[in-house]
Amino acid sequence: MNRPHARNSLGKVFVNELFSALEHLRFDEKVRVVVFKSEVKGVFCAGADLKEREKMDDAEVGLFVKRLRSLMDEIAALPVPTIAAIDGYALGGGLELALACDLRVAASSAKMGLIETTRGLLPGAGGTQRLPRCVGVGLAKELIFTGRQIDGQQAFSMGLVNHAVPQNDQGDAAYQRALTLAKEILPQAPIAVKMGKLAINRGIEVDIASGMAIEGMCYAQNIPTRDRQEGMAAFREKRPPRFIGK
């Protein structure tokens, strides 16, 4: 993300560009992991572009927030694992974007929060639904009701991020840790990883019996893959597997 003059805030043009990028990523079979990062030092995403928002009437606001919600859903629906590298401020819609990712890595000094109530708003791009799944209902309510900002270390202690790392002189410590994490995922069987993501995402929405059925359907899709056969052969031959995503 690289909109320095507006701290990567989510304006109409920027949102359209993100949709276009997601469309490309969704159908690129070479993509195994997606990392969301900022090229703007000190900020991940400052949230909605409120300067643009204040020029909208009520109907336009409603339509734009609906489009933001669709954007976050598109990020969540990417078939490959996604990682948010939070090296600076992730506020409001910026944190909602990170919440739409599968994994989050933050610099200890990063600041994040669903601050909408401090602006007379409430989270409208999935924050009220995704935050409780990360930190639990009680903490989610506290963070949303107060509009409090927390740092990366606090976010880690709450379970909001997977890793918190000290910031480096380049200001990209979270991105570097996210790359390391991505490289751990990269060698694994792509279809198995995709099916694992699908099973978790769909299963968490239903009761455990239905979730087990979803897991069974995902597992069944993986059985006939060449990668599964390669994994068994590599185990038998005591060598590293060479997965091809087929």
UniProtKB/TrEMBL annotation:
A single cellular component GO annotation: mitochondrion
| Assigned keywords, A-Z | Acetylation, Lyase, Mitochondrion, Transit peptide
| Gene3D superfamilies documented for this protein | 2-enoyl-CoA Hydratase, Chain A, domain 1, Lyase 2-enoyl-coa Hydratase, Chain A, domain 2
Q: InterPro entries, per this entry?
A: ClpP/crotonase-like_dom_sf (IPR029045), Enoyl-CoA_hyd/isom_CS (IPR018376), Enoyl-CoA_hydra/iso (IPR001753), Enoyl-CoA_hydra_C (IPR014748)
One example of the protein's molecular function in GO is:
RNA binding
Supply one GO BP term: fatty acid beta-oxidation
Compartments it resides in: Mitochondrion
Could you tell me which Pfam families the record lists for this protein? Answer: ECH_1
Q: Identify the PANTHER family for this entry.
A: ENOYL-COA HYDRATASE DOMAIN-CONTAINING PROTEIN 2, MITOCHONDRIAL, ENOYL-COA HYDRATASE-RELATED
UniProt record similarity statement = Belongs to the enoyl-CoA hydratase/isomerase family.
- This one is known as Enoyl-CoA hydratase domain containing 2
